[in-house]
Structures are given as C-alpha cells and as structure tokens.
Amino acid sequence: MQHRVSEFLVGLLFGIGLILAGMTDPSKVIGFLDLAGAWDPSLAFVMGGAILVGLGAFALARRRATNLMGGAMHLPASPDIDRRLVAGSLIFGAGWGLAGFCPGPAIVSMGAGNAKGAVFVLAMLAGMVIFELAERAKTGALAGER
User: Fold this and answer.
1) 121 in a domain, yes or no?
2) Containing domain of residue 29, as a range?
3) Do the domain assignments include residue 126?
4) Number of H helices, E strands in the chain
5) pLDDT at position 86, please?
C-alpha cells in the first residue's frame, strides 16, 4: 500500500508540474514549435529543466543496484541509435507537433476533462495496440506460428 501512495504522490507532483509549465495547453506547445511565426520559447526552459533533472537522476541511478522502493534497477542497456529509434522519434515529434500533446500532458489533460486530451490518449493507445499486433505478426507469435 505504501508503494501505491508514493506512486500517487509522485504522479500528482508530476501532473501539477506539467500544468504549471503549460505542457497541458496544446496552443502553448504549438507556439513553441512555431519557429517561423510567433515563437514561444518558454517551454525550452521546461525541457532544459527536465534534461538537468534527468541527467542527475540517471547519474544517481547508475550507482545504485536497487531503486528507492527496493526493486531492481532497469536502465537502458543499448546506446545504439537505429532505424526504429529514429522512425519512432519522427512519429512522436510529428504527433506532438500536430496535436500539441505528448503522452504525460495528454493524460493529465484528459484527467482534467479536456476532450482533446482524451482523443489523443485514445489514439495513442490505439497506436500502441497496432504496434504490438504488428510486432507479434512479424515474429509469428500472434497465430502461434513457429
């Protein structure tokens, strides 16, 4: 039960941070991405802050054998940049630019009752299901082949 309370509090803090940073407002995100128009650089500070926190967290995590809750640490194993990573990044960026949402802020926005956030989350979940089905079909795991 203590783990769930901690998870809830961390998620709540993250959600409040996203709201305060303006990440749940698609027009603010699109304004940041509009380099040729009325560019809004404020989210660059949000991203810079997130990168600094992430760098510190990963540096700390590399020195630990267990996470703060006592479980095993699961850090990325491969530093390789391959075609799938680049393609996924491009798709993510295009979706972010078109919708003005990325996954975390979309979930917060949906929780606040924003219909656009809900549509984005549903589309994101559909994309995840399609990807999983395609991966299973590619490996033959879907029909029990091999």
Assistant:
1) yes
2) 2-139
3) yes
4) 6, 0
5) 94
